[in-house]
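Researcher: Structure prediction, please.
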Amino acid sequence: MLTGIIEQVDPAKWKLAPHVTELEASIIREILKITTRPGVISFAGGLPAPELFPIETVKELAAYVLDTYGAAAMQYSLSAGITPLRELLAERATGRGTASRTENILITAGAQQGIELLGRAFIAPGDYVLVENPTYLGALQVFNYYRAQYCVVEMDDEGMLIDQVEKQLETYHPKLIYTVSNFQNPTGITMSVERRKALIEIAGRYNVPIIDDNPYGELQFSDERIPTLKSIGGDEVVALRTFSKLVSPGFRVGWMNGPTEVIEQFEKVKQCVDLHANTFAQYLMLEFIKQGYLEPHVEKIRADYKAKRDTMLAALAEYFPPEITWTRPEGGMFIWLRLPSKLSAKELLNKAVERQVAYVYGEPFYPLGGGEHTMRLNYSNATHETIREGIKRLGDLFKAELAG
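Model: Predicted structure follows.
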């Protein structure tokens, strides 16, 4: 006998754990629901440009993978990931200045799962985590789930302020340092080479590991490659990487690069989570790299995002009031804005949506509060025309509010 759909559940029966009931939905995901409305220009989500997805290439590679690997591409696999892909990623990292072996690589379901594995493996309730202020919201969600406490470090145009790092390490003894060192989400700031070296030296002195979340590192607009924290710091650093920003977020394929003994522990934790990452997608990414598609594809993305960044910066200069300032990222997907104290980015969002344009206000990126007068804009998932029109709408709104 079929039963009806239950609209409400009895909380006395479904006794969720406190750390689950205390979870808050991602504000970005909530704002993205608004952006599905017809006509809304969205600068909210950190979405890759869909017109750049290599759909025809993936069609060809999907057939090749099935013809070449057969049932293996559709079967359960190793928790650490398929060996050929791990070997290739280790070889690629070594060729780019980060000496790596297969045993250093763990395939994850995107870089976000890497953060989740770190939370499970490292954080007990009450442990401190050192983060940039502001920092990536998805990391804060994970750390909040495991009931971490925060010590925060402010940034300037060169990244973390190193004197603050040392003070926080000495005061709070955090379990780990979490940073997005390249084209940071949400600010677009990149840590300078000098700061990277100083951070590694101080972290080593205080015996605290560094987690470098680096999904945007290859989206650098200049040809001068910045040495990664991992390439400088070696075993002091666990690097999180992903193909989500380079090829497709739908594949959910990322990886961790860390000391062998640490990776072995993460592998055991991953077995508890999902057994292994998507096998078929791993083989697709293996062949995407082996057959020479990745590098030219990334070059195409870099050129596209650089042009869109330039369009947004020009539109900001043309349409925004002079009281508002913003970053000038040299890569990645985001521009960070600071508003005058008279304007609250959160309070103005509804008025912006009335004008058919959306952004993410800054407060959720600050783990200890603050950021009322900040906001994030994404330029990758828009056209040049919608960038100019959306920025004009926002500029008109902000000018009207400042004049009122």
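Model: The chain has a mean pLDDT of 94.
Researcher: Thanks, that helps.
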